[in-house]
């Protein structure tokens, strides 16, 4: 099920990061998070990757060193005691640490590294100035290789098949929980790893949200346009045990993760038919998708695309319902996706670096109607040389069950 | 599916934490992690709980304030801009912040809070000395209420039923992935929330591990005695697509999480029969469980219990195989369990505070034989007034399929 990237890809990933480090004035960076380790080494064992801005990185591994050595594509060494990690680094990278004029500037993934670990690192490696390098890491990862795009596409196949299995089982009175358990069973049997990775602190995702009628429209902490009611205050998003009724929108926002790479897609279904108000909102979501597809190409900026979608929602008189309702609206139209589901760029204000070929983005216009439900759709796209290409495979329409 | 704890429980949780804060010399603590917020407020929305050592805590919520207000059992306020959070706190807790002799000592959950957030907090609330309070939080949560024990027991029922469903489907040639998908479907339909929460940085858990023969004995990063081969380097633990063969041990270490509370249990199965070497190791694991049960009561210390198990493994000549093999052994016999799967106390060296009534512990003696597999068992126990009681419900034996 796992195919390794071609050998040159590892060097390419590293060189792209090293260029960013040099441009940003960093002497090196230390990567601590499992997903970051996997991206640069091909292995996800417990340890740290130290990457100088120039020269060879080393993956220092505590456990399992055996597995790390068998998987890793970069130089891999056993991590001594954490207390002596500073000494180990000073000795392996003496050029960096022995320079007498100033302490080296070392970046780290401080957006995910726990403060306790950060404080221990600053003690263990006192001869360093620590700086947040998470933006650089996210930028490098935002542009995908052909290998990565293939992996995402494989997840798209599994998700599409699972959606079909779910729809085949859908009937009135079935609960959201029952429906998701059918879909998850299908994805899991086809290689879904059993979890989805999300970078944001305290953000969690099961496989996604299935939520119908008023349950879908409930406000949540989840950093998305529609989180769903959830099973309890201890799982306050995604499915509930509410039975699915007739003539209400069923939001099926489900992804999966095969071999580390995630896909995200949303379809709207209904048993019976939607009211004209909800149908009109769905049509608006579809128009936004069609229109965004026209602009989705290298050079466009995420914030322009977001502004364009906001404008279309406004013209349709649906501003208050767009991407959540009222005070619980989220301020984006979509997000990068890959090893994590909440990658960069975000289609939101402040993201004004132009899109590049190889970026993968989930675009998810949705409209929320309190008491009634949520309608919308979501595709994952690849930015190509001249435009975009949908990676999601499920036919795009409202799925009507009679 | 969700039953709320009795009203007095919320006050009790808070008072126990406040006593620890006072004893530890803290003036207050700030809780940022979703699980910690849920434990003290009954809600898991995005925000911070500020708890003074004396007086009323406030849950400052960014999103969703509507849901938080409907769920929370403590005073709940809207969080203004993060930049002004320091001012909001100084004004709401002027007694703490206006004292002229010294800056208040504020604890926080620094073992999970990202460094980036920690650094922003220290800027936003400069009039404070920040200190790690994660040990206090873990200690308070280690003793469960009657309500919490009921929740864990409900998860135990769901896990036991799922194990039966899995065993009913088990046959030679089935892959580990296929078997877990049957078990997960059963748990999910019965209310498993679709994820298990684990506190350790970079630690992940799907629902657990099903792993047979040599795949089970592979070393992993996972902080447990047997992690399994996994599906790929991007999911390097739990199930693989290896077909399950005859006469090899099948380790089924599966838990679930219903309404926030987790259960953990392990059973060993075999299609055919085990070799006498593996059977003897299983018998040793069973003897360790029986012996530990005798000592598992208020007053015993976790490190004594661990030492006792180590000694039993040694007497049986199985030291090298106990809790992993060789350099990849883990140094514990079990762990606390509740809202997270890796709670305190750990049955390991250094944990010398006596056990208390109400603690819940998973005890998991396992023996690893490289190339052959892993055998062992795991039960979750409640410490009672005079001893212990198993919360796991699955019959305890090697499950033999002919």
From TrEMBL, chains A, B:
The keyword NADP does not apply. One of its GO terms (molecular function) is aminopeptidase activity. The keyword Ribonucleoprotein does not apply. InterPro entries: Creatin/AminoP/Spt16_N, Creatinase/aminopeptidase-like, Creatinase_N, Pept_M24, Peptidase_M24B. Pfam families: Creatinase_N, Peptidase_M24. Residues 13-143 form the Creatinase N-terminal domain. Keywords: Aminopeptidase, Hydrolase, Protease. Residues 150-385 form the Peptidase M24 domain. It comes from the Bacteria. PANTHER family: AMINOPEPTIDASE (PTHR46112), XAA-PRO AMINOPEPTIDASE P-RELATED (PTHR46112:SF2). This is Xaa-Pro aminopeptidase. The lineage of its organism: Bacteria, Bacillati, Bacillota, Bacilli, Bacillales.
């Amino acid at each position: 099920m796992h195919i390794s990237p071609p050998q040159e890809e590892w060097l390419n990933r590293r060189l792209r990061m090293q260029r960013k480090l040099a441009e940003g004035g960093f002497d090196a960076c230390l990567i601590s998070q499992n997903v970051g380790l996997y991206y640069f080494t091909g292995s996800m064992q417990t340890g740290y990757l130290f990457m100088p801005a120039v020269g060879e990185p080393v993956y220092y591994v505590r456990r399992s060193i055996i597995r790390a050595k068998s998987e890793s594509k970069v130089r891999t060494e056993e991590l001594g005691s954490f207390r002596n990690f500073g000494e180990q680094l000073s000795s392996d990278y003496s050029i960096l640490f022995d320079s007498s004029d100033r302490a080296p500037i070392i970046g780290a993934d401080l957006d995910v590294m726990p403060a306790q670990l950060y404080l221990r690192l600053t003690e263990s490696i006192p001869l360093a100035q620590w700086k947040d390098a998470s933006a650089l890491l996210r930028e490098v990862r935002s542009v995908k290789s052909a290998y990565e795009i293939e992996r995402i596409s494989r997840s798209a196949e599994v998700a599409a098949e699972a959606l079909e299995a779910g729809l085949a089982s859908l009937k009135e009175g079935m609960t959201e929980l029952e429906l998701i358990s059918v879909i998850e069973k299908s994805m899991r049997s086809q290689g879904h790893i059993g979890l989805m990775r999300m970078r944001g602190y305290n953000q969690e995702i099961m496989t996604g949200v299935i939520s119908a009628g008023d349950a879908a429209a409930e406000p949540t902490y989840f950093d998305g346009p529609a989180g769903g009611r959830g099973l309890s205050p201890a799982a306050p998003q995604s499915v509930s045990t509410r039975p699915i009724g007739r003539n209400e929108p069923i939001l099926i926002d489900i992804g999966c993760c095969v071999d580390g790479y995630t896909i995200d897609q949303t379809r709207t279904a209904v048993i019976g038919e939607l009211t004209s108000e909800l149908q009109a909102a769905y049509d608006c979501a579809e128009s936004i998708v069609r229109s965004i597809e026209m602009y989705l190409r290298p050079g466009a900026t995420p914030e322009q695309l977001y502004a364009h979608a906001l404008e279309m929602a406004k013209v349709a008189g649906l501003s208050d319902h767009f991407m959540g309702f009222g005070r619980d609206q989220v301020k984006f139209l979509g997000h990068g996706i890959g090893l994590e589901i909440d990658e960069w760029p975000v289609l939101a204000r402040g993201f004004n670096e132009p899109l590049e070929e190889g970026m993968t983005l989930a675009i998810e216009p949705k409209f929320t109607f309190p008491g009634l439900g949520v309608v919308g759709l979501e595709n994952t796209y690849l930015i190509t040389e001249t435009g975009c290409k949908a990676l999601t495979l499920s036919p795009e329409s409202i799925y009507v069950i009679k």
